[in-house]
Design brief:
Elements: E1 8-12, E2 21-23, E3 38-43, E4 46-56, H1 81-93, H2 98-104, H3 109-112
Length: 121
């Protein structure tokens, strides 16, 4: 019997790294993950705010090494598909990391407000 496909979240984190990071969805109840939503993710030894850029079925990483996101603080996307497309195009054109470009398009409080919310751990 074939394995059921696992949903992979492609996350942009506002760090000076030119790429996206793959994570697993949050286990349990909550909003359905969608591109344009902010997420809290484990990133190195810290917890960072990121944004879902895409949903995928495949990853280049070993699936058992992927970590789940920690929280979805937004009930719906902050950026629509056309906003994401334009910002990511500009990031590529100007050689800016996608996470930095996405979060520079949001009010500054959107990056710093999330860690003040109560976390499930």
């Amino acid at each position: 019997m074939p394995e059921e496909p696992v949903l992979i979240l492609r996350i942009a984190v506002p760090v000076p790294v030119p790429g996206l990071f793959d994570y697993l969805p949050l286990e349990g109840e909550g909003p359905e993950p969608q591109p344009g939503m902010r997420v809290l993710v484990p990133f190195g030894h810290r917890v960072r705010v990121g944004m879902i850029v895409a949903l995928a079925q495949e990853t280049e990483q070993e699936r058992d090494r992927l970590k789940p996101i920690l929280a979805l603080p937004d009930p719906r996307p902050l950026l629509g598909a056309s906003d994401l497309e334009l910002i990511l195009w500009a990031a590529d054109y100007y050689r800016q990391p996608p996470g930095e470009a996405l979060f520079s398009a949001l009010p500054p409080a959107m990056e710093s407000a999330v860690p003040r919310m109560s976390l499930p751990f």
